[in-house]
């Protein structure tokens, strides 16, 4: 029974890796990628649990730690909300007024079924602006969406636009080999925004065991896991300067 159980667990992890890799390497076109996400929505939570994906928990814990007041009255936008994993973690930490956007209709359907969001809208960030007025939210999260082949790093400007002065943006990205150039680009942008007076750094947390690696090449330091980062920045009173 013990061996059979271990084999079944290994098989589940292998299958989850396969699906994650298929979506990551999926069609170059946006429409094709969104179609893959629609198809993945039903098994998404099970797959990321097999891979011990910790970003939603880590991001929500970091944001709650940085938040100066009771989060109950705070209005928060969950960008790339997927099935609602981040919302679940935020609710646990006292956030009540949650709005979500995602590019995948299938993912939004799953998120809607949780009852965690007051408002959900379809939005393909990077292609279109966020469906919210300027300086509207006390916090904006983008967990698991800022990486190579997903949302471009410049979309952070849009997230800052909809954040109130004094509000927070909470971002994550991975530190695995194939995402290092994206990570460098994101960090260079954040550095410029701080220099321009658009926001200030509150917390940057590097995490070694972010999730199980999906391949040997992605494996960080031979641990079987990849590492990742949580960034918390506070919006200043100046609007971010547009990128050229």
TrEMBL record:
<feature type="domain" description="Methyltransferase type 11">
    <location>
        <begin position="77"/>
        <end position="170"/>
    </location>
</feature>
<dbReference type="Pfam" id="PF08241">
    <property type="entry name" value="Methyltransf_11"/>
</dbReference>
<dbReference type="InterPro" id="IPR029063">
    <property type="entry name" value="SAM-dependent_MTases_sf"/>
</dbReference>
<dbReference type="InterPro" id="IPR013216">
    <property type="entry name" value="Methyltransf_11"/>
</dbReference>
<protein>
    <submittedName>
        <fullName>MET27 protein</fullName>
    </submittedName>
</protein>
